[in-house]
Design brief:
Blueprint (H helix, E strand, L loop, with lengths): L16 E4 L1 H4 L10 H6 L1 H7 L3 E4 L27 H13 L3 E6 L9 H8 L12 E2 L20 E4 L4 E4 L14 H16 L4 E4 L17 H17 L4 E4 L5 H4 L11 E3 L3 H11 L3 H8 L9 E5 L6 E2 L5 H11 L6 E2 L2 E2 L3 H4 L4 H11 L5 E5 L57 H6 L4 H14 L2 H4 L1 E4 L7 E8 L2 E8 L5 E6 L7 E4 L4 E2 L7 E6 L4 E7 L14
Parallel strand pairs: 1-2, 1-14, 2-3, 3-7, 7-8, 8-9, 9-10, 10-14
Antiparallel strand pairs: 4-6, 5-6, 11-13, 12-13, 15-16, 16-17, 17-22, 18-21, 19-20, 19-22
This protein binds 1-deoxynojirimycin and calcium ion.
Length: about 550
């Protein structure tokens, strides 16, 4: 078993993360809801896919009004998913396969059913127990803070009859924000962190981390006081559980996310939110510029830190970190039907977003696996699962994993009506057409392709660790960049247009090197002179190892091998 302490402390830089809901993956006890036992049964599948880190969405006791992000007890598991012992078995079995376990630390808010809130609303105003949350006599404080769930909430304040006061919440009104100005709250969260870390958990995703502290006259996001809280969580983790990882969920511009890495003393990782919609924008505009632009505006991060990259996740495709024009464009391009929209985003999965275009899925995956950062796959996207916008909120992208074409998509043996959610059944994306069993048997399937790409990625640490340099291309439809790490230099190319494209690259910095295409090991003509001509088919991509490329900073060109 790989124990946290035995492995490279920077393990998360080389990781392949897989995000799933316990309830949606596999139902081992046949009650219609996925469980820890089911996850254990499917670990071999994840191992074969090449996954090295399993990210579990919230599985704690909860009224499930925000799918578990409304936590009612931080130190237990929801009885539908099993017991704490079942969770421990999952961690053990995952570790036995070299798979780390990443869980949620919902730091910003609790459910209104949490005993802290129940106690607080009854406690005398001004008392420490009352002050676990943020109270006010008016709903006018912190007016500079935006509303995030614009489709459901009108205010960040809700009146509580029992307390005779308003309480503060950045998300649903049943999710009161905890009060980090109260030292006891930080102590509680540290206790929660220790609790799960002692059970062997390898990493924590800090949910909604920009909103921890509020101050009058600000937008109550990314405040210095919030960063101070994170530093304390990190210091405790480093001291008591070295090698564990913190991942910031800060849906912010790159320059506002940068401080979440601190001086290497806050989070190890942070999602790169803004690059995601721009990947989809580039694809529809047939222009690489939006991707290049946002990455150029992304500041460098400390050596020990890492971006987390994703194409889709359990939420809507958020359009918070784009301009208004870009948002309008994205909605026109990807969500013409109002049912596909939610808050400021688009509630669709990867395959339907690209009209089930296999080449487009492959192209976007090539970016996910080669841009700087750690790739995060959303369950089901590796087989091209679809969504259902007729279901409320984000439920349409949280349907059961499609294991087979059999009853209940092979997800559960329970009678159909008792499933937590019906599998997708439409003719294109339904489980009869899209499922793991069939794709495992089909050598040309998306799943087998994905496995292959992941295997390739894992052979080259350069993808997880290397630097990024854009290469100038004569054709704006071609995205060209070089990743370098130690001896390895890899040239990545992507054609974001539907048509075949010719282009010329300035590869003078790699004069003398031989590009070797990495999927087929085909050597291409040696780089001589500044101009290098290539073509790529519509939505094509290519990765070339530049053999014999001079390491950055070296003056002498090594002879081509
Ligand atoms: C962020 C999570 O990703 C989302 O699913 C959730 O609804 C909000 N935090 C509020 O808890
Ligand atoms: Ca079950």
């Amino acid at each position: 078993m790989v124990r946290a302490v035995d492995r490279d402390p920077l393990w998360y830089k080389d990781a392949i993360i897989y995000e799933t809901h316990v309830k949606a993956f596999f139902d081992a006890n046949g009650d219609g809801i996925g469980d820890f036992g089911g996850l254990v049964e499917k670990l071999d599948y994840l191992e074969q896919l090449g996954i090295t880190c399993l990210w579990l969405l919230p599985f704690f006791p909860s009224p499930l009004r925000d799918d578990g992000y409304d936590v009612a007890d931080y130190r237990g598991v929801h009885p539908s998913y099993g017991t704490l012992e079942d969770f421990q078995r999952l961690v053990e079995e995952a570790h036995r396969r070299g798979i780390a376990v990443l869980i949620e630390l919902v730091v910003n808010h609790t459910s209104d059913q949490h005993s802290w809130f129940q106690r607080a609303r009854r406690a005398p105003p001004g008392s420490p127990l009352r002050d676990y949350y943020v109270w006010s006599d008016t709903d006018q404080r912190f007016a500079g803070a935006r509303i995030i769930f614009t489709d459901t909430e009108r205010s960040n304040w809700t009146w509580d009859e029992m307390a005779g006061a308003y309480y503060w919440h950045r998300f649903f009104s049943h999710q009161p924000d905890v009060n980090f100005d109260n030292r006891l709250v930080l102590e509680e969260m540290l206790g929660v962190l220790r609790f799960w870390a002692s059970l062997g958990v390898d990493g924590f995703r800090l949910d909604a981390v920009p909103y921890l502290v509020e101050r009058e006259g600000t937008n109550c996001e990314n405040l210095p006081e919030t960063h101070a809280v994170i530093r304390q969580l990190r210091a405790a983790l480093d001291r008591e559980f070295p090698g564990r990882m913190l991942l910031a969920e800060a849906n912010q511009w790159p320059w506002d996310v940068r401080p979440y890495f601190g001086d290497g003393d806050e989070c190890h990782m942070a999602f790169h939110f803004p690059v995601m919609p721009r990947i989809f924008m580039s694809l529809r505009l047939e222009d690489a510029e939006p991707i290049v632009d946002i990455l150029r505006r992304t500041p460098p991060i400390p050596e020990t830190c890492q971006w987390g990259l994703f194409l889709r996740n359990h939420d809507e495709l958020t359009l918070e970190m784009v301009t208004e024009e870009e948002r309008d464009y994205m909605v026109l391009a990807y969500a013409r039907d109002a049912g596909q929209r939610l808050n400021l985003g688009i509630r669709r999965r990867l395959a339907p977003l690209v009209d089930n275009g296999r080449r487009r899925i492959e192209l976007l995956s090539s970016l996910l696996f080669s841009l700087p950062g750690t790739p995060i796959l959303y369950y089901g996207d590796e087989i091209g699962m679809g969504d259902d916008v007729l279901r409320p909120d984000r439920d349409g992208v949280r349907t059961p994993m499609q294991w087979s074409g059999g009853p209940n998509a092979g997800f559960s043996s329970a009678p159909g009506p008792s499933l937590y959610s019906q599998p997708i059944t439409d003719p294109v994306y339904g489980h009869a057409a899209v499922n793991v069993a069939a794709q495992l048997r089909d050598p040309s399937s998306l799943l087998r392709w994905m496995r292959n790409l992941i295997r390739l990625r894992k052979q080259f640490q350069v993808f997880g660790r290397g630097t990024l340099e854009f290469v100038s291309s004569s054709n704006p439809k071609i995205l060209a960049y070089v990743r370098r790490w130690g001896e390895d230099t890899v040239l990545c190319l992507a054609n974001v247009s539907r048509q075949m494209q010719p282009f010329e690259l300035d590869l003078s910095a790699f004069e003398g090197a031989t590009p070797v295409e990495m999927l087929g090991y085909t050597a291409f003509p040696r780089i001589a002179g500044a101009r290098y001509f290539l073509t790529l088919g519509g939505y094509g991509f290519a990765w070339f190892e530049l053999r014999g490329a001079r390491p950055p900073g070296a003056g002498i060109v090594a002879p081509a091998r």
